[in-house]
Design a protein that fits this description.
Helices cover 5% and strands 48% of the residues. By secondary structure, it is mainly beta. A hairpin with a 5-residue loop joins strand 37 (423-430) and strand 38. The chain is flat, with a radius of gyration of 31 Å.
C-alpha cells in the first residue's frame, strides 16, 4: 500500500471539478480553488449547459462519455480527448451521467469518475384536486359544483420541480396562500380550502423555482368552483380561536344571519371562571364568523388576558341561522374549547419550534402526561449545562404589540426536582430581528414537581420600544427539566 501511495505522489494529486453554468457563462481558466469550490453533482435547467474540468496531471489518455441526447458545445474542431474542459448542453429533462476516464504516465494510477447531472424541465404550472369533502358535488374538466360549506383539497403537480408557489382562491378560506418564503410555500404544496359562500370562483396557481432559476408560470381557471345551496344541511363549526386582541372568533362553514342580540345566548368560562360577555355579533367583514368579545376587565381588574384557556357554550335560542335559509338554525353546543390561535399546546405544539442547533442542545417535546390544563404541555429537558430553548417563531405565530401600551406576561411552570438552574428566561422578541424584552425569572424559591403560576408579581411590566409583530421564546441554561403551559400576555392599563 505504501509503494502505491508513493507512486501517486510522484505524479501529482488528481483534481476533478464539475461547474454548473448559465447559458451565457464562459469558463476561460480555472485553478486549484475552483476545484475545491465547485466539485459535486449539479442541477441545471433544460437547454443550459454544465462545464466539467479535469485538472489531473500526468494524463496520457482521456475519455469523456456524455449522454446521447447531449452535446459538447465548445469543441471548436478539437477532439474531446484533448480537452481538459468540456461544456455539455442538455436539451432533455431527466437524470444523466457524464463519465471521465484518465490513464496516466504511471500505469498504476487510473481515474474513472462519473458526475451526476439533474436536468430540470421548464416550469409548467398545474394542479390536481385530490379530494372533495361535501355531501354533494359534480366534477367536470372545467368546473366543480358542490354544496356550500364543502372543502376542496388542491395539490401542486407542476412540472420543473418548483419550490415556490402562490395560490389565489377567491371565495375560499384561505383565500390565498404562499408567495412568502421557500419554507411557507413548500407547506402549501397541498392545501385544503373551505367554500362557505354561494357563488362561482376562479382558482389561480403561480409556481416558480429559485435554483436553478426557473421562470414563473401561471395557471388560472376561471369559474372553476361553483358553490350552491345545501338546502337542509346544518351549519358546522370550523374553528373557535382566541385572537391576540382578546376577541373570540367562532367560524362556521356557511354564511349566517340574525336579527336579534345574541349576547345572552352564549356563555364563557376563562380558566374555570365564568366570564361576562360584552357582545356577540356576526363579523362585519365575514358573515361566516361570530365575533364574541369577553368582558375580562370585570374579573381581572386592571389587566386584560389576551390569551387564556376558555370554554364556550351556545344554548341554541334566538334566530341565528343560515343566510340563505332562515329555517335552518345553528344548533346548540356545550363547552366547546377555544383554541389559542398563536401559542397554545393543545394542537401538540404546532406553532412552536426548537432554536437552531447552536442555540439549543436540549430536547423539546409536547407530551400528554403532564398538562396544567387541557391535554398537552411543553417539556424542556437539558442533560448538560448548555442552553435549552424553544420559541414560536413560525408561520402564523406572530402577535402585534403597541409601543404606546404596557404589557406583562403570565405562564404556568412545573419544575422537576432535577432542575439545577436558578431561573427561567421567557422573552418577547420582535419578529424581524432578535431584539425585544426578556424576563430573568427566579425559580429558586418555587416548589418542585407541581404546577406554579408565574405572573406580574415576578415578571416586570414593560412598554415595547417598537410597535410590530413579536413572538415568544423560553430558555434556561443548566441541567434539568421544566414543563410550560397556559402562556398569556396581558395589556396593563
Amino acid at each position: 500500500m505504501k509503494a502505491y501511495i508513493n507512486k501517486i505522489a510522484t505524479i501529482g494529486i488528481v483534481f476533478l471539478v464539475i461547474i454548473a453554468c448559465q447559458k451565457d457563462d464562459a469558463i476561460s481558466q480555472y485553478n486549484f480553488s475552483d476545484a475545491i469550490a465547485t466539485s459535486g453533482d449539479k442541477r441545471i435547467q433544460r437547454d443550459d449547459f454544465a462545464s466539467f474540468a479535469d485538472l489531473s496531471k500526468g494524463v496520457i489518455s482521456r475519455t469523456w462519455t456524455i449522454p446521447q441526447s447531449a452535446s459538447i458545445i465548445n469543441l471548436e474542431g478539437r477532439d474531446p480527448s484533448e480537452m481538459d474542459l468540456i461544456q455539455v448542453l442538455f436539451v432533455e429533462p431527466g437524470q444523466f451521467e457524464v463519465n471521465l476516464k484518465d490513464e496516466f504516465i504511471d500505469s498504476a494510477v487510473e481515474l474513472d469518475t462519473t458526475f451526476n447531472v439533474t436536468v430540470l424541465d421548464y416550469i409548467q404550472t398545474n394542479f390536481d384536486v385530490i379530494s372533495i369533502d361535501s355531501d354533494f358535488y359534480e366534477e367536470t374538466p372545467t368546473q366543480i359544483t358542490m354544496y356550500e360549506g364543502g372543502t376542496i383539497t388542491f395539490q401542486d403537480v407542476s412540472l420543473g420541480n418548483p419550490n415556490r408557489r402562490k395560490w389565489t382562491l377567491p371565495g375560499g378560506d384561505p383565500s390565498s396562500a404562499g408567495g412568502i418564503s421557500i419554507e411557507e410555500d413548500d407547506q402549501v404544496s397541498t392545501i385544503a380550502v373551505n367554500y362557505a359562500t354561494i357563488g362561482t370562483y376562479d382558482v389561480e396557481l403561480i409556481s416558480w423555482r429559485q435554483y436553478p432559476e426557473g421562470a414563473a408560470d401561471t395557471l388560472r381557471i376561471p369559474n372553476y368552483i361553483n358553490i350552491v345551496e345545501a338546502p337542509e344541511a346544518l351549519p358546522i363549526i370550523n374553528s373557535i380561536n382566541e385572537k391576540i386582541n382578546g376577541e373570540i372568533h367562532l367560524k362556521y362553514n356557511v354564511e349566517l344571519q340574525s336579527s336579534s342580540d345574541l349576547t345572552s345566548y352564549f356563555s364563557l368560562r376563562f380558566d374555570d371562571q365564568d366570564i361576562e360577555i360584552s357582545s356577540v355579533e356576526i363579523h362585519p367583514d365575514d358573515n361566516t364568523i361570530l365575533k364574541i368579545i369577553p368582558n375580562t376587565n370585570s374579573s381581572s381588574g386592571s389587566t386584560r388576558p389576551i390569551l387564556s384557556v376558555a370554554l364556550l357554550t351556545y344554548n341554541g335560542e334566538g334566530d341565528l341561522s343560515k343566510l340563505n335559509n332562515p329555517n335552518v338554525e345553528v344548533p346548540a353546543f356545550i363547552d366547546m374549547e377555544v383554541s389559542h390561535e398563536i401559542y397554545g399546546f393543545e394542537d401538540g405544539g404546532l406553532g412552536w419550534d426548537v432554536a437552531w442547533q447552536w442555540d439549543n442542545v436540549g430536547e423539546i417535546t409536547y407530551p400528554t402526561n403532564n398538562p396544567a390544563t387541557g391535554k398537552y404541555s411543553m417539556k424542556m429537558e437539558a442533560t448538560s449545562d448548555q442552553r435549552c430553548r424553544a420559541y414560536n417563531k413560525v408561520s402564523g405565530s406572530y402577535f402585534n404589540l403597541d409601543s404606546s401600551k404596557s404589557y406583562t406576561i403570565e405562564f404556568k411552570i412545573w419544575i422537576d426536582s432535577n432542575y439545577t438552574d436558578t431561573s427561567i428566561f421567557p422573552e418577547v422578541i420582535l419578529s424581524d430581528q432578535w431584539v425585544g424584552e426578556g424576563f430573568w425569572t427566579s425559580v429558586e424559591g418555587l416548589p418542585r414537581d407541581q404546577w406554579i403560576t408565574v405572573n406580574k408579581e415576578a415578571v416586570k411590566i414593560w412598554n415595547p420600544d417598537v410597535s410590530g409583530e413579536y413572538f415568544f421564546s423560553f430558555r434556561f441554561q443548566k441541567i434539568g427539566t421544566a414543563f410550560i403551559d397556559d402562556i398569556k400576555i396581558y395589556e396593563v392599563e
